[in-house]
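INFO  loader      accepted 1 record
INFO  loader      residues=170
INFO  predictor   begin
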Amino acid sequence: MSYVIEANVMPMVFPTVAVIGALVSTTVRRPANAAERLETWLRWWFGAAVGFGALWIAVAFFFATDTFAAVIGYQTSGFQWEVATANLGFAVVGFWCVRVKDHAREVSMVAYLIFLVGAAIEHVYNFVVNNDIQPGNVGTILLADVGVPVVALILILASRRLDKKASALR
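INFO  predictor   done
INFO  writer      dumping tokens
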């Protein structure tokens, strides 16, 4: 039973940590302007929601393959290795995006969005076609699969908009 709770709670833990971390950071440090506040949010989102979120999935699929296959409603197979290595790569990208401030952020999150929307489509397909109602297939994982990269892209676009406005005022 605990894996059911974990399957529904864990996908939202790291985005929640990102929101709480960004709120606390912007409250305590009081960034001077909107661009600095947004950068704080971006760094927390990349580090916690993307980096640690993807790392958790990678570790889970590397070391608890049978459990996580069951949580999703799949049989143990090579897909776990593929999911683990892809998520390990996206974890590295998330941590890297904490420090960079260039267009690599956009490119990285578009790739992450494509990967995770593909995963979400597969989850929905298995729900509809195979009646797969396992919590790792149709639970909060769907929200995280689409929400994490979409929020990252929204934050990036808002940041770029502020940068353009600041450049226009100079």
